[in-house]
Amino acid sequence: MLDGKRILLIIGGGIAAYKSLDLIRRLREGRAQVRCVLTPAAKQFVTPLSVGTLSHERVYDDLFDLTAEHEIGHIRLARECDLVLVAPATADLLAKMALGLANDLASTVLLATDRPIFVAPAMNHVMWANAATQENVAKLAARGIAVLGPDAGELAEGEIGLGRMREPAALAASIAQHLAASAPLAGKRALVTSGPTYEPIDPVRYIANRSSGKQGHAIAVALASLGAETTLVSGPTRLVDPPGCHVVHIETAQEMLAASLASLPADIAVCAAAVADWRPAHAATSKLKKDGSTPHALELAENPDILATLAQNVARPRLVVGFAAETDNLLAHAAAKRVRKGCDWIVANDVSPATGTFGGDANTVHIVDATGTETWAPMSKKDVAARLAARIAKALA
Ligand code: C5P
Fold first, then answer.
1. What's phi and psi for 294, nearest 5 deg?
2. Phi, psi of 339 (to 5 degrees)
3. Is-contact 194 216, C-beta < 8 A?
4. Which residues does the annotation mark as catalytic?
5. What pLDDT, in 10s, does the model give residues 349-392?
6. Distance in angstroms (rounded) separating the CA atoms of residues 356 and 334
7. CB-neighbour burial class of residue 396 (10 A; exposed 0-12, middle 13-18, buried 19+)
8. What are residue 10's phi and psi, to 5 degrees?
């Protein structure tokens, strides 16, 4: 859920600032983009060099840095993010926020942002318990700012009490949870089929096709990043399992059907797999020999149609999307296919060899639904996936 999210991390000047380095690492492990602002006091605890090295981003620490203002500006810094996290949030920073002061870059950004704000307080337990701090924190919470911690335990000065900054892993998990809960497809379940199927002739030979799985995998990632609990049923591909999805590996069409049905109930089904229409009717259990005993013709049996089975199921997902890969009469075939299979939308694409769609990174698609056809400009398969996921979210809203 952190994947691709832009987090502005404001590091306050407390000893817990050293934990922010680990926090940056963990957020980046979840594939978030982390941009950091250091308060002047924070620079006494961690250096801009270490923060910049871990975040892979320029570090911002001066409100009056003309170069930084020229390049990005503190208002853009405040807005070009999905959320702001203050960790550690010192008593001083919390007080500035409660009062609405804007006398350095961190406090100015906090006043200028319209994004969700999270604070992870860290301070001595007596400072935390002080009525001033408690009033400030109550004010912030009443304004909708999420207060994560502090936790109890041994503090830097050797005293024991409430004041430790919450551990980076727990903070990263809270942020991921928040992003998931507020995502457009939160609470929705999605099933995506992807890749080719392998239909065995004997234990070493099979019938397959040229599908790379790139488009289907990208759709699973895009749905998951909008908060859908996503199952990806994948035929054999060269792709790594995408993070944030439950991946079920199968080989044959029959296995793909069983895995797809097992993932129901679902709200969304996107069948992007290039399922083999036929399989050898009698796969040999041992390797066929060239000794004349092997028949020269393969007897084929028709495979189940997964898309049609899902679309006509008693537990039909609310939105069923199929693909039509055609080399001629694309739109006419796609419209007929939508009706024949009983799905809601067909994503039609021309897979003539000249288009380079099969195995390539780009795609030109047309969305055929009950109201007509929408043609999208050529774009990367990732962009097709993001746009399709956004269209799905809108349809289910
Ligand atoms: O009939 P055709 O193979 O052209 O239909 C393509 C669409 O149907 C794709 O969405 C594909 O994933 C799906 N399909 C399926 N099971 C099959 C054949 C196709 O789910 N056996």
1. -90, 130
2. -70, -45
3. yes
4. 209
5. 888 777 777 667 778 899 999 999 999 999 999 999 999 999 99
6. 20
7. middle
8. -100, 120
Q: What is the C-alpha separation between 228 and 191, in angstroms, rounded? A: 9
Which residue is listed with tokens 């004997």? 202
pLDDT of residue 225: 87
CA distance 122 to 261: 49
Amino acid at 272: A
From the CA of 307, how far away is ligand 1's center (Å)? 6
Residue 261 C-beta-side C-alpha neighbours within 13 Å: 13
Q: Which of 30, 53, 3, 44 is nearest to 171 (CA)?
A: 30
Instruction: Look at residue 89 in the predicted model and tell me its pLDDT.
Output: 98
Regarding beta strands 229-234 and 245-249, do their DSSP bridges make them parallel or antiparallel, or are they unpaired?
Answer: parallel
Reply yes or no: is the peptide bond before residue 265 cis, omega within 30 of 0. yes
pLDDT at 295 over 80: no
Residue 152 carries which side chain, given as an amino acid letter?
A
Q: How far apart are CA 245 and CA 120, in angstroms?
A: 29
Instruction: Give the Å distance between the CA of 306 and the centre of ligand 1.
Output: 7
Q: 150 preceded by cis ω (within 30°)? A: yes
Measuring from atom 4 of ligand 1, which residue has the nearest CA? Answer: 324
- Inter-helix orientation angle 105-112/91-99, to 10°: 40
Give me ligand 1 centre to Cα 146, in Å. Answer: 46
Q: What is the pLDDT of residues 196-213, one digit of tens each?
A: 999 999 999 999 998 999
Beta-bridged to residue 33, according to DSSP, are: 6
Query: Do 97 and 136 meet the contact criterion of CB atoms below 8 Å apart?
Result: yes
Cβ count near 179 (within 10 Å): 22
The answer to whether the CB of 320 is under 6 A from ligand 1 is no
Mutate to test the pocket of ligand 1, among 271, 310, 345 (most ligand atoms within 8 A of CB): 271
**Alpha carbons 80 and 76: distance in angstroms, whole number:** 6
Question: Residue 289 pLDDT > 90, yes or no?
Answer: no
What is the arithmetic mean of pLDDT over 188-194? Answer: 98
